Write the structure tokens for this entry.
Amino acid sequence: MAVVTMMPLQAQETSKTTTGFVEDQQGADVIGAFVDSLKLLMFEHGIRIAFQDKTRAELGGPFWLDYKRSVRIPAQWEDSDSWPVNYIGHPIHGAAAGYIWLDHDRNAPLDFGLSRKYWVTRGQAAAWAAAYSLQFEYGPLSEASIGNVGLNPATNGWVDHVVTPIGAFGLMVAEDALDKYFVKWAESRTTNPLYRFAFRIVFNPARTLSNTATGRWPWHRDDRPLRWRPNDN
């Protein structure tokens, strides 16, 4: 789930991340996306270790043996997580990874749209989210290795593998649309930065998580600073 740290309001950069481009045919900075995804991964695991007693309790013991025993093909749909975690939290976590991919794809449209390029890039972002989710569940830096989720078969379900990428795709599209048609409209009617901050955090939780984990202000937008004025765009 998105965790927002309040920080002093400052002007933000308005350009996309351009460090270390390794371009594929779509112009994506794969290395940059990988590095920022690792930051998100560490951020999420840090939250797990800090706030979950069950995760801390499983940090001891034989690492490789417990990790190996925790990686298994699910035998059921549900796991032991609550409905909000599986059907709200996991799409947010997947969409945050998807936004990291979009941040490093120079060809990805910033705004919601009906163009083929928009939908293709969001599909690619969802595929990145699926890969991120698989690593988060089973990889060397995963719930299976850090906390041994899956050691108990009841904690392992297909829900995470299906809901995370599909929910991420839907949530990215929804957040893009909300940002374009509601948040930007609401911001054009106030110059109060606290109101603008609230609009962006509440209606774009996945983008907020992505921004926070990768070291940007939670309210960051590539196309407009927090103190923009309607006649700027």
Notes: Confidence is low (pLDDT under 50) at residues 1-24. The longest helix spans residues 159-187. Residues 74 and 157 are 5 Å apart (CA to CA). The two ends are 32 Å apart (CA to CA).
